[in-house]
Amino acid sequence: MPSTVHAALIETLKRHFALRNSRLETLAVLIVALVQGRTVNLSHVASHFPGVAQHGSNYRRLQRFFQSIRLDQAVVAQLDRIQATRFKSLF
């Protein structure tokens, strides 16, 4: 079950991306992990995933996500500006 931050982020992402719920959840967890880990190294990001899954499973989940998803860069840039202020106070 996603945390409040993850749930709010998923709801925001839903309005901008046509992705399955599992992909939206992965994207939300990825964004939070990037902020918490302050790195783009997928191995390090995977260690910040919530839950009881093994590190290798989280790392593979990220690899599969990036293999199958192509995000519109203009939408990502717009979301970055919007969400930077909204979620900054939560971390």
How does this structure look, described?
The protein is built from five helices and no strands. The chain is mainly α. The longest helix has 17 residues, at 21-37. The two termini are 19 Å apart. The relative contact order is 0.15. The mean pLDDT is 82.
Give helix % range: 55-70%
Q: Helix-strand pattern, N to C?
A: HHHHH
Helical run tally: 5
Largest sheet: none
Mean pLDDT: 82
Secondary structure: number of strands: 0
Given helix and strand content, the structural type is: mainly alpha
| Cα separation of the termini | 19 Å
Global geometry: globular
> Over the alpha carbons, how many angstroms does the gyration radius reach?
13 Å
